[in-house]
Amino acid sequence: MQSQFASRPKPLRLLLRLFSSIWTGIVLAALLFIYCSIGSAVPEFRQRPFLEMTEFEWFHWWPFNALVVLLCITICTATLRRIPLNVLNAGVWTIHTGIIMLCLGSYVYFGTKVEGDAPVFRRQVKIDVPGGNRTVGLVAIPGAEASAVGGDGVWNFQIESTNSAWPILSDEHKGEKAYAVNVGVRPPDGPPFVRQLLAGYERYTEDIIPGQGRAIKSLGTSLVDEDVELSLVYEPQEHFHVMHSWALFVRRVGERTWVERPIHGLPRYNDRISSRDHVFTDPHFPAKIRPIDLEVPAPAGNDPLAGASMHITGYLRYAQLRRQWRSDGDGLNPVAKASFVSADAADHSYELVAFDSRRRISDDGLIELRWLADPALTSTLPTDSRATLKIVVPGASQAPEGAEVPGADVSLDIPITNDVLAGREGPFTSIPGTDFTYRLLNVQDNLAIPGKAAVVSIVMVEIETPEGRFTRMVADQPNMTRDMRGDEADPHAHGRAPAEPDPRIVMTYTPRSSPIVLAAHPEGMHFVYNGPSGRAISKDVRAGEVVEIMPGLAMRIDALWRNAVGEVRPYVVPPPLRDRDAAEGFSMIRLEIASAHGVETKWLHFNQYVFPDEQYASSGRFRYVPERFRLADGTPVEIMFSRERKRLPAPIALDDFELDTHLGGYTGSSLTIRNYVSRLRFLDDGQWSEPVGIKVNSPTEHGGFWYFQSTWDPPPRENPGGGMNFTGLGVGNRNGVHVQLAGCCLAVAGMIYAFYVKPLIRRKRRGHSAAAAHGPAVTQFDTEAAPSSKEAVEV
Question: 315 and 257 in one domain?
Fold first, then answer.
């Protein structure tokens, strides 16, 4: 045997000796332990720029596979050469066989693993309007909207609310509960109404008229318009999105089908930019320059951008679009930044744009920015935060006969509230001491002036004089106040276009203002604070100045740009301020598309799912932010940044959703929930299967994939009956898991054999050996036949 071994080539002998060594196995096992510890306990290492690996990728990388293969070779070689196959060694052979099977099963499992998730919505509202040429679908999520064109015009629909446990109070189904969807309907003509739909109980569909209640009580029929048909149907999900993947989705604007372009090689954990001018950063966390230029080729198929070159030239792990201002613009565009400063709380900053009707006043209504063309106009700033209308009838020479004080002006200050807005049907109010009366019709604040970078606020006032009636548009800018044409019987306005106001009645409108008014003008800025008792502070201020409003609270004027130009870039959120559970939710890419039309570059937000349109994101739980580009011929296309998408083995529908709660039911707290159950149906051969329940930690298998609860739509705290309009399913395969399980069972069985059965066999054998050696001589007391102590030991 030794001669045969010696005759083998030396390299082969060395390899056999190496892989037969127990120390080789120990070293490989130690290396595997270190490798696994780094991947699991020190994720920062595998996430570094030179690796950029997820945990799954780390444990499927070639070094890990090589270590496992070498360990398996060592186990096989050492077992065959050093451990004879017999009854005593059966446990070791079984353990080693189990380990090899576990490694093979794991290789198949991780080599073919596909895992992802998918949202499955509970119902869709199917809509058919009179004279319409197509059926419109509206996903059953509060806030979702859709329009349908009918023979008499455009119908508008909106999901107003849902209820997952609506009680049925009539007929033989009394006491049962159903999923209810309330759809607001706005016909082309006629008053709006709400149609209530119950899943599975079409016979109880009815309309509700706002302010009147159920249509059956007001009209004698359950439906306001029987020609408009609304029904609840399943909303099947046909795809799932793959975990730890990237993709772009492209389509022409107006289409509903996306064309997918997978992205390979895009980083995941580290920012990649080629210039700091592409982003805004915190000064304490400067951006590192790491260029990237990754081409995303078009797949075979109907890709609308197939003829364009698409490159990713930037990636940000956690960023938000932010606007910053410069003061080098060509036109007037006043922008101010101010902050509340308090010793007891963090600073709260505001950014105000004077000519933007939505951004000139802060969201909380506490501060506003105005532009004054002349510094002298600071005297016209409000002294009260309420909207007021000032009416003046000039002195005796112009005042009608009967004025209270001849030769003096009649003056009124009228606070404008909802109570004093009479409208066309309200009564007139007399102006004391005059023959004039008036009524306030309506107020419209912050109207954009066409062709000008400014806004105007107006109050419409109907005035009655001895000669007749007319309507005055009273503007907060006096030069824009006009008297409007009345009807043909109005002698005062007949034949006139909007004209200068009647000088016999002077009106001035001061719109409702915030307590704090910043008035920018060509020479600086004026600060006004109107407290509960009226004007409290009025002074000129400059950038950087702090104005004390009351003890413990002040306002700092951070900046003023008169010719502001807004620049929008991604702001890289500093690591300490990031949500650790957000994963890739705030990722962005910089996409550059070169075509015959030119080069367009935009930053794209990451979208967790790719939906057909924005109605699926109406709940606010999902993002739907596609970006638009243009083809060479000017045709607009939209692109969405998301994950790769794969087709499910069978479409899935959410039949029902059950919430298992503790005693007392759902109170808005997760502590009151014990479990939640999704009842799914699978579409096989055109037929829906029976409902299959999926609980937390209780998945089900269908078509080679396993489905488990991932996320859900919890009811809002203020509406315990709402929510539960969709469920989030985790989707994944488990190839090779049975081989893994068999390997584990074999290894455990081998351990039991080696540690419990083998000692019994050896003990029994030693007992038989001892009996065979001493049995006949000892029992017959034949001392001559008994072996010596040395011989006994050798035996």
Answer: yes
DSSP code at position 606: B
Residues 401 and 504 in one domain: yes
Regarding predicted confidence, which is higher, 358 or 546? Answer: 546
Question: Rounded distance, CA 577 to CA 281, Å?
Answer: 13
| Residue 126 and residue 220 share a domain | yes
555 and 606 inside one domain: no
pLDDT digits (tens, 9 = 90+) for 455-482: 788 999 999 998 888 999 999 888 889 9
341 and 276 in one domain?
no
* C-alpha–C-alpha distance, residues 130 and 150, integer Å: 6
User: Is the sign of the CA dihedral 147, 724, 623, 266 positive or negative?
Assistant: negative
Please indicate, yes or no, if residue 74 is contained in any of the structural domains. no
Specify if 768 maps to a domain.
Answer: no
**Segment 259-318, tens digit of pLDDT:** 999 999 999 999 999 999 999 999 999 999 999 999 999 988 888 998 889 999 999 999
Task: Confirm whether 116 is domain-assigned.
Answer: no
Share of the chain above pLDDT 90, in %: 63
Q: What pLDDT was estimated at residue 488?
A: 39
Alpha-helical segments (H) within 423-538: none
Question: Is 93 within the bounds of a domain?
Answer: no
Sheet strand arrangement including 482-484:
429-430, 437-448, 455-465, 468-475, 482-484
Q: Is the pLDDT of residue 493 over 50?
A: no
> pLDDT band for position 451 (50/70/90)?
low
Cα-flanking dihedrals φ and ψ of residue 686, to 5°?
A: 80, 5
Contacts of 155 (CB under 8 A, 6+ apart): 127, 129, 147, 148, 149, 185, 186, 187, 188, 228
| Domain's final residue, options 563, 587, 602 | 563
How does strand 367-371 pair with strand 516-521? Answer: parallel
Domain count, the chain: 5
The pLDDT tens digits of the residues spanning 685-724 come to 999 999 999 988 889 999 999 999 998 888 887 777 788 9
Last residue of one domain, picked from the residues 632, 657, 685: 632
Range(s) of the domain holding residue 694: 646-737
